[in-house]
Amino acid sequence: MRRVVAVLALAIAAGGAWGQKTIRIAPQSNLAVLDPHFTTATVTRTHGYMVYDTLFGTDANSRVQPQMVDKWAVTGDRRTWTFTLREGLEFHDGQPVTSEDVIASLERWSKKDSLGQRLAAAAERWEAVDARTFRLVLREPFGMVLEALGKPGANVPFILPKRIAATSADKQIEDPTGSGPYIFKRDEWKPGSLVVYAKNPKYRPRAEPPSGTAGGKRVFVDRVEWQILRDAQTQVNALVAGEIDLVEQPAHEHYPALRRNPDIVVHDNKAGAQVVLRFNHLHPPFNDARIRRAALVALSPEPFLKAQYVSPDLYRVCASLYACGTPYETRGGMEGLLRGDIRRARALLKEAGYDGTPVVILQPTDLATIAKLPTVAAQQLRQAGFKVDLQSMDWNALLSRRAKKDPPSKGGWSIFMTTLNGLDVANPVVSLPMNASCDKAWPGWPCDPVLEKLRLDFLHAATEQDRKKVAEAAQRRALEIGTHAALGEYFQPVATRKNITGLLDAPVYVYWNLDKK
After folding, report:
1. 209: DSSP letter
2. Per-residue exposure over 386-400, b if at least 16 CB sit within 10 Å of its own CB, e if not
């Protein structure tokens, strides 16, 4: 009897159901949106990597590599690209992945993604040559075709079945059928509590070693469970007790204790993420560029970073709209901005005729890595003379709220804060907050033809030196019109139990290659 009890205990510790190896994860936030084309939310992107696959991936050295694609060719004028899918690819429902599925997916994705929008504008047509071969014909050469198809950051060009990809880009998909390494167990999904993924037994990984979002996506466990634990202390307690195996984003104040625990491994990630404060350009007070500039003068990055990320070795001040340490990092246009100059900010507000319209700032209460940021923003803006209304809600409510174009007084918003992977702010074309294409832009909806022309010029630049000049000009214009504030960068290590192996060093969360001893 004792032996049976011991075996049961081992089975539960190894992963729940009989004979199944399960890894339990506390994700960054609750999963509420299943559609990875619909939102840029990190948790939805991570869900996308579990369930879907991509034509190309980006390896740990930032090189684009084939994933679902077997081979491709481009004509000498670089206007016609032909791609052939790997043999044997199929969706979770047993249907083969075809060229028509790919084209429908890319057309839907390109309506939401900044780089996808540019690719769609340059494309004359997509066409299916046969079931596995498809072609992109461009009106003019486009310098980032493979970078677009293999981009690892939001929005990722995941491939869906055509019948699902036919859903309007403005409506969320309801069917999570993909062709990726895991199958979403909708019958076990308990929104707000539990998300379950099962190994896809028919998935055929590439032969290459895994690297970034590229290479072989091998699955060594039967199940991955996301345990939705909204409190940061509860997450750490569960990890230490062995009730979960991995915490994606522990609150920064917990790292010293986690590093001292012999049963825990802290996986440092030096890729960096940018802290972003986003203005709503549609409604007062931030429909006035002069008032947005006043806010940029009032804000000071260091208090944000210190309050939220605690230890100086886990954050850095970065005076650039592009990720620090990347080719396009520049201070261009930052003169006089983000200095916490309260006196000057007050003078600018007076000159702009600010009438006391409340600034509605959205604050997520259940996201430990950004929950304190809006409080700092409220304090700094109040000191500068703004009237501030700080409204608390959970992260998924915030995501729904920020998509609304209603006035702040009728359920809309003035400011939200978030963080963006360095991949998502690497240059003016991929940068979500620098997209100034009006209704097609990221929530906040800046509308500026000058900035849009500069983003297009970046794609057409002939040399790297020219691209750097255009990137600086784009940053200057973005700061001139006040698209957003970039308030520095932070680093977010992942914490796991010691018996978890195979966690990949990637700038996004991917959970193939994991194993549990």
Report:
1. P
2. bebebeeebbbbbbe
How far apart are the C-alpha atoms of 284 and 281, rounded to whole Å?
Answer: 8
- What is the 3 state secondary structure string of 215-283? CCCCCCCCEEEEECCCCHHHHHHHHHCCCCCEECCCCHHHHHHHHHCCCEEEECCCCCEEEEEEECCCC
Average pLDDT over residues 314-324: 94
Q: Look up residue 277 and give its two tokens.
A: 């404060």
pLDDT range class, residue 224, cuts 50, 70, 90: very high
Please, which pLDDT band fits residue 2 given cuts at 50, 70 and 90?
very low
Q: What is the pLDDT of residue 8?
A: 33
- CA–CA distances in Å: residue 342 to residues 19, 339, 372: 62, 9, 21
What are the pLDDT digits (tens) for 460-498? 898 999 999 999 999 999 999 999 999 999 999 999 999
Average pLDDT over the chain reads 94
369/139 Cα distance (integer angstroms): 44
Q: What is the 3-state secondary structure (H, E, C) of 65-93?
A: EECCEEEEEECCCCCEEEEEECCCCECCC
The pLDDT assigned to 6 comes to: 40
- The stretch 417-436 carries a mean pLDDT of 94
The pTM of the full predicted model, rounded to 2 decimals, is 0.90
Contact 133, 82 (CB under 8 A): yes
For residue 437, give the DSSP letter.
B
Interacting residues of 176 by C-beta distance below 8 A, sequence separation 6+: 34, 51, 184, 186
Report d(CA 77, CA 51) in Å as an integer. 36
CB 44 within 8 A of CB 50: no
Residue 506 has a pLDDT of 87
Nearest to 332 by CA among 486, 115, 153, 118: 486
Q: Are strands 494-497 and 415-421 parallel, antiparallel or unpaired?
A: unpaired
CB 479 within 8 A of CB 248: no
Q: Which amino acid is residue 437, in one-letter code?
A: S
- Dihedrals φ, ψ of 344, to 5°? -70, -40
**What structural domains and CATH numbers belong to the chain?**
32-177 (3.90.76.10), 273-490 (3.10.105.10)
Tens-place pLDDT, residues 339-385: 999 999 999 999 999 999 999 999 999 998 999 999 999 999 999 99
Tokens of 16: 């729940």
The span from the CA of 289 to the CA of 105, in Å, is 37
Whether residue 401 contacts residue 393, with contact meaning beta carbons closer than 8 Å, is answered with: yes
